[in-house]
Specification:
Elements: H1 2-26, H2 28-36, H3 42-55, H4 59-67, H5 72-84, H6 89-99, H7 104-121, H8 126-132, E1 135-140, E2 146-151, H9 154-178, H10 184-197, E3 198-200, E4 215-217, E5 224-229, E6 234-240, H11 248-256, H12 283-293, E7 307-310, E8 325-328, H13 330-338, E9 342-345, E10 352-355
Antiparallel strand pairs: 1-2, 3-4, 5-6, 7-8, 9-10
Helix pairs in contact: 1-2, 1-3, 1-4, 2-3, 3-5, 4-5, 5-7, 6-7, 9-10
Length: 376
């Protein structure tokens, strides 16, 4: 097992080194796209590309990862810590020595403690150090679940724990009254969702339709689609924007409090054209793009971070029609406008993709031929 783990570490380190080099040539988003093709999740791919980019500034740590003395996860910890609070060569060497025998959790605590020490040397208090390290990540996990990982400073963390505890206790009272089957962990999850997506009701009524524990649904934007079976005369194939299916009963429940934006799609899923005399797309067009592209057509990042891009520029008489619009994240948007990247559409799948400009190979300059000397 030890030999297998050593081989795994060296293979991961070799991959990180290759990704770091590829990132230098094509950029982090391109490296993440390549990693995503290896069969790993988009979140893990971006994380791997970010690790490779961060380790370029720490050649000794990158070498240790490539040799298998540090795991890729440990290398990522050191790179992120260095980005927040730069470390000296001596600090790096000490962490390299500790990484060989500390397990993952111990090493994470060590890296955090050393970072606190470096920040203390800069005159930052412990609360300021914790505030600087706060973070929240939301990504898709296994089995279609959504995973939240948060690290908060002591004060903010205590406030969240008190609010979660209070909401969970209210839900426990409802559980006792109505006897639902809900575990402690499930109740905590429901409490978090209630705190984030709901607001206090004007007239609290525990157990009332649409309300729970004195809170009612807060207006949020959730894009849900369904097909209409004209033969059967009923809805079918309800799902979220990423294609994840949902029950029709849940779809009908969501529709009760939703703003309905009617759209008609062709048989291959393409929205009908909506020509406009204005540059900015309408709300209906944006929703249609969300349904069609489901994220950046360049790197696949989530649609909430994307802008609407005209394939044929507006200033060159490009129309604001659906077939002339795509979703691009800010990074890919800059590539399209400043670095010559182009949008192409696959004729079979009708999907749009972002392509870098073609590289032209220039022949080597020819040496001028010597003129033969003429003897006098």
């Amino acid at each position: 097992m030890g030999e297998a783990d050593s081989v795994r570490r060296r293979a991961e380190g070799y991959l990180v080194g290759l990704i770091a080099r590829y990132g230098e040539l094509e950029g982090r988003s391109a490296a993440a796209s390549v990693c995503h093709q290896f069969g790993i999740s988009a979140h893990k791919a971006r994380q791997l590309a970010r690790t490779a980019e961060g380790l370029k500034a720490l050649p000794d740590v990158l070498g240790a990862v490539q040799q298998g003395r540090l795991s890729a996860e440990q290398g990522a910890m050191v790179a992120e810590s260095h980005k927040r609070a730069p470390m000296s060569v001596q600090d790096q060497q000490e962490l390299l020595e500790l990484g060989g025998w500390q397990n993952h959790d111990e090493y994470k605590k060590t890296v955090a403690a050393r970072e606190d020490q470096r920040r203390a040397a800069d005159g930052m208090s412990r609360s300021e150090q914790q505030r600087a390290r706060r973070s929240l990540k939301v990504f898709d996990g296994a089995g279609g679940m959504v995973v939240l990982h948060a690290e908060l400073d002591q004060i903010a963390g205590d406030r969240v724990k008190v609010a979660l505890g209070a909401m969970s206790n209210k839900m426990l009272a409802d559980d006792i009254a109505f006897d639902p089957v809900r575990t402690f962990e499930q109740r905590n999850a429901d409490a978090l969702v209630a705190l984030v997506t709901q607001q206090p009701a004007d007239a609290p009524k525990a157990g009332a339709d649409g309300e729970c524990c004195g809170v009612r649904p807060q207006k949020t934007v959730l894009l849900v689609t369904a097909d209409y079976d004209a033969i059967e005369g009923r809805l079918a194939g309800a799902g979220l924007i990423d294609g994840a299916p949902i029950d029709l009963d849940e779809f009908r429940r969501l529709a009760c409090d939703a703003d309905i934006v009617p759209m008609i799609f062709s048989a291959d899923g393409q929205p009908l054209y909506v020509g406009q005399a204005q540059r900015a797309p309408t709300k209906a067009q944006k929703l249609a793009l969300y349904r069609r592209d489901r994220g950046c057509v360049g790197c696949g990042i989530r649609l909430q971070a994307c802008d609407v891009h005209h394939i044929v520029p507006w200033e060159l008489n490009g129309s604001t029609n659906i077939d002339n619009l795509v979703l691009l994240c800010p990074s890919c948007h800059r590539k399209a406008h400043k670095h010559g990247h182009t949008i192409e559409q696959n004729e079979q799948t009708r999907r749009h993709t972002l392509h870098p400009p073609a590289r032209h190979s220039h022949p080597p300059p020819q040496q001028p031929q010597r003129q033969p000397s003429i003897a006098a």
